[in-house]
Amino acid sequence: SLSLFSSNRQVSQAKNQDMVGDYQISEVYQLVAEGQVNYLRFISAFVTPVDPAYFDIGDKAVAVYTFKGRMMKTKTETETEASTEI
Questions:
Q1: Residue 63: CB partners within 8 Å, gap ≥ 6?
Q2: Average pLDDT along the chain
Q3: Cα(45)–Cα(47) distance, rounded to whole angstroms?
Q4: What number of other Cβ atoms are within 10 A of residue 65's Cβ?
Q5: Which of 1, 4, 8, 50 has its CB 3.0 to 4.6 Å from that of 29, i.e. a possible disulfide?
Q6: CA nearest 22: which of 46, 44, 42?
């Protein structure tokens, strides 16, 4: 089976809320059948140097959220119309 791994880390800043977010998203996708893909997603949250706790914790995740599921291809409107016309 075909597998794909993706990972990226992002820092975002909400000036209106005086907040900075630092998180990493890692995903694994696996083709299990024609039109069906299983996925596993991890979202890791980090404190930033703006937070006083950063100097005790360092660059380690303080929370990890895990999501898993299956994506399935569905027929598009054009595919559905074509199959009903035959």
A1: 44, 45
A2: 85
A3: 7
A4: 11
A5: 4
A6: 46
pLDDT at residue 15 in the model: 63
- Conformational region of residue 35, where left means phi above 0, alpha means psi within -120 to 50, and beta covers everything else: left
Could you say which DSSP state residue 86 is in?
Answer: -
Q: Which two tokens stand for residue 83?
A: 């199959």
**Is there a contact between 15 and 27 (Cβ–Cβ < 8 Å)?**
no
Q: Which spans in the chain are helix H?
A: 54-57, 77-85
What digits encode the pLDDT tens for the residues 21-49?
889 999 999 999 999 999 999 999 998 88
Residue located via tokens 């990890």: 64
pTM for the structure as a whole = 0.69
The tokens describing 27, both together, are 């995903």
Task: Report the length, in residues, of the chain.
Answer: 86
